[in-house]
Amino acid sequence: MKKHNDSPSLDAIREGAAGFGASGRRDFLTRLLALGAGAGAAGMGLLPAAALAGERDGRPAQRLDYDYVIVGAGSSGCLLADRLSATGASVLLIEAGSHRIDQPKVREVALWLQNIGSDTDWARQSTAQAQLDNRQQALAAGKVVGGSGSINAMIWLRGDPRDLAQWQRHVGGPWTAEALLRAYDDMARPVGSPGSGPSRIRVGRYADPHPLTAAYLAASGDTGLRTIELNAGRPLNGAGVTEVNATADGYRVGPAQAFLVPALARANLSVLADALITNLIIQGNRCRGVRALVDNALVQIRANRETILCAGTCESPKLLMLSGIGPLDELRAQGIPVRQHLPAVGRNLQDHLLLSLQYRSRVFVPPQLSNGVSTMSYYSNGPAHLAPDVQVAGMQYPFGPLQTPAGGSYTLIPFLAKPRSRGRARLAGTDPRQSMLLDPGYLAERVDRDNMVFALERGLALGASRALASFNGGLYPADPLRTYAEKLAFIARNAGPGLHYTGTCSAGRDPASSVVDSRFRVWGVDGLRVVDASVIPEMPAVNIHASVLSVAQLAAKVLVEERRSHHHHATA
Ligand SMILES: Cc1cc2nc3c(=O)[nH]c(=O)nc-3n(C[C@H](O)[C@H](O)[C@H](O)COP(=O)(O)OP(=O)(O)OC[C@H]3O[C@@H](n4cnc5c(N)ncnc54)[C@H](O)[C@@H]3O)c2cc1C
């Protein structure tokens, strides 16, 4: 049996029992200063110097205990940091990646792909996928302030209300479809609509003038779909023009820009970047805070009220397990003392799966507008009370494994919208710097293979439709795609990850099948919540960012209400 924390280099790390030593504290402050150093156009990717006002005025130095400690400054963490600091509570937001959201590949919509495999990507790998020719998949995720919301493609889709009804069934409590629809409105707003109230993500629609947009919509009509408004909060029975969380002149409006930057004006919010959380401090059945690696020193940071894990689907279950919260047998096998047996930690891992159909164009394709995504078309292969099984994106540029000429090619992306297969995230060891063994179980279920073939067929039908005839110069790869077996083989060789991991700390109704309850509390551990994509119990039928943020907004509402009633009782 292995010993807990058996990594030699980690053993060498000094643990400052009383918090930071003198030099550690200085480094901490340096980091907080660095975060505010990029003064300038707030909201456009630069962090304001106002965040540092407290330091410059000679007000008290940063504390080492906070009301709320948030682990991970990603999509969910940025939203919660804003909503919780607005109550006056002291909040520390901790991020393993850097604070550099002012760099071009993060700021500029057209450059988002440059993040993949770069310093802003955790660049994890899946296990070999049996149904994908045993290919490992590159599971990108953001490692920078703003998290995956700082490196994503900015496709903004509200989702299908039939998925919300499914979540309500799985989780109950405050997870009603109505509350989730309201949470969306509290978190996002269309460009040009009034801007009062809490900070919200601005969402715009820029694809209309591109000639492929009208062609894709007409092609969808050729395949039997009607044209719909994608973000109206209604069932996705049709095809529509995509929207983007970005400005009209091409800059990202992600969670860092929309939620965190404005909130930094509050003296009660601090951000610590370049700090890896290694595990939680658990005393009895209560979480008291976190341990973090800061410049090779292990430091402790206390949370007086709550610790909130927002580290994402591939990391939050790891931090629970490294802290003794997870499946008993798996913890024992790693020599980790068991604090709370929770068998669902790491289970229920899901992801979308996609294919690129790359076409030669007979005519010149003008440069992409915004993120280059024109339309989404939805097709159902199952019962009408469920959200669509398939989404096909109409793209304005070559996207996929083949190097095809810009201006001379375009792409359709069929996508398995409702995967039924469930995979698992397992500990690979006890070194907190090591990725988990991530098995999304792509296409493990027969129904998913059938639906992926159906997605490919819908994509091919769109591509071959009359409305696209003036563009269609033929599909690039020459593979025969006639029989089911040929289509499945093409999928096995070419499909890639959706990058929409969910489910490893699923919310639910009992500790046997879920990790958090409907109020995001980890079963059996006080003072500890998980709020990120990992709590989503069932994959929504669309790209998930808006869904993740709606769930985080719901969590913020729960936490803020609890804080208010606590205050009320304390002062009554
Ligand atoms: C390349 C890419 C493109 C995508 N494109 C789209 C799209 O176009 N549309 C869409 O709807 N969705 C898209 N998504 C998905 C969407 O962006 C994510 O699902 C969403 O941002 C996840 O939010 P989260 O809060 O769960 O986690 P994240 O935003 O990933 O945040 C987790 C944060 O925690 C930090 N962290 C992790 N571990 C630790 C630790 N131990 N210590 C300290 N910090 C830690 C991470 O660095 C990260 O900042 C895309 C995702 C990727 C990766």
UniProtKB/TrEMBL annotation:
InterPro entries the UniProt entry points to: FAD/NAD-bd_sf, GMC_OxRdtase, GMC_OxRdtase_N, GMC_OxRtase_C, TAT_signal
Keyword Repeat among UniProt keywords: no
Transmembrane segments: 32-53
Signal peptide: none
Domain of life: Bacteria
UniProt xrefs under SUPFAM superfamilies: FAD-linked reductases, C-terminal domain, FAD/NAD(P)-binding domain
Name of the protein described by the UniProt record: Oxidoreductase
Keyword annotations of the record: FAD, Flavoprotein, Membrane, Oxidoreductase, Transmembrane, Transmembrane helix
Cofactor(s) needed: FAD
Naturally occurring in which organism (per UniProt): Pseudomonas solani
Glucose-methanol-choline oxidoreductase N-terminal domain location: 142-165, 312-326
Keyword Oxidoreductase: yes
Taxonomic lineage from the root: Bacteria, Pseudomonadati, Pseudomonadota, Gammaproteobacteria, Pseudomonadales
Similarity field: Belongs to the GMC oxidoreductase family.
